[in-house]
Amino acid sequence: MNKKTLVLVLIGTITFTNLWAQKAITLKQNLTLGKKYTYEMNVDQNINQDVMGQQIDMKQLLNITYSFDIVNAIKQDKNIKVVYDKIYSLTEAMGASTEYDSAKDDGTGNNPLSALKGAGFTMVVSPKGEVKSVKGADEMMEKMAQKSSSDSATVEKVKEMLGKQFGNEALKSTMESSLKIYPDKPVKVGESWMIESSVQSMLPMNIKSTYTLNEVKDNKAYITVNSVISANGPAEIMGLTLQTNLNGQNNGNMVLDIKTGVALDYQVKVEIDGTMSAMGQNIKMKINGANKVIGKEL
What torsion do the CA atoms of 228, 267, 115, 110 make, to the nearest 10 degrees? Predict the structure, then answer.
């Protein structure tokens, strides 16, 4: 190859690379009908509370594996059956610990989480990741509450508490906060888009996330995530109404499969602090943690 030919090849390569870098790509939920996908979610967080000068530290670990079965399509929306496959939970506080592992569950305990393995619900999700409806979660929650106790009064209290995390509306907002991550138009490398979501759970939160497309390689989109989190207002926890004033952020990275829109690897660091108040007492709170979700096609 002579020098002139080599120069032309190099120019052609550079031109092709620049054209690809400037090409706008479409990112959306495009799960394949009839396929199944699995997601493993890991939450590792430390909660530090100052209650009237007393320091209370809590550590929480949560690992949940669930699957998506793409049942049918409603125009561009997908009807998805969600099933919980594995659950692990560990809480440590004040020298005591509570642990649950579905792999070791023999069915004799009273932990509501034991009713979660193999249970599920259905949801309709748009290409933008909007969760349009959830069905079956309330029935799943009912079984969880019944598992907690044989006392009807206790079951009702547990049901009320679980409803804020596992009811139809609660799961609708929780799932949407994880799935509504796509831009409303094609984006180029270097461009950003913002998504706002509201999580209606035991601790209601508003999240404003900025996503930036950093690289496109091997049919994957490499994205940075920076979110502002706020929880300002009333929250009901264990029958107690608290006034919250919490603010924070999460920052991390995400790898998306361009063809399906599946988050193959989604990792963020979370920092939240502020106060919660009840009955004239202020509780200073700080939360630090790491959240990770790994997704793949089965």
Answer: -80
